[in-house]
Amino acid sequence: MQTISDKSPAGARFPPVLMGVAVGAGGVGAALTLAGVDAPPRAPLTLFFLVMAPASALAHALRGLDGAARAVLAGAGALALDLLVAQTMLALHLWSVRVGVSAVGATSLLLFLSARLAHARRRRRLRTTSSQG
Length: 133
What we know:
Layout: H1 16-35, H2 42-61, H3 67-91, H4 97-132
């Protein structure tokens, strides 16, 4: 029987500085695109945002899995989410780079917040049952 925990091995965690740089790079890419600035780093930073925002939200939702499985599933889910947003926007004739970045960002934020809320509820339920018993 396998025990699932949200503790990953020591080597699987990223240093906070590296995570801050990644969030900053994605934020700069989204901001450059939303502002309409034509700069050379806009395309790679926006692509980084479009992949990492949903991947981070999905990785947070999949906290019970080990690091490798969580990374693979979050990456595949991020690409699927990007494709679904693009397909929906094309079907509705709403295609725009700015709207696409906004839609992916908003969807990622909603996914992250729902996972955070579910985790908080689960933790609160465990605390109440452990204090009663």
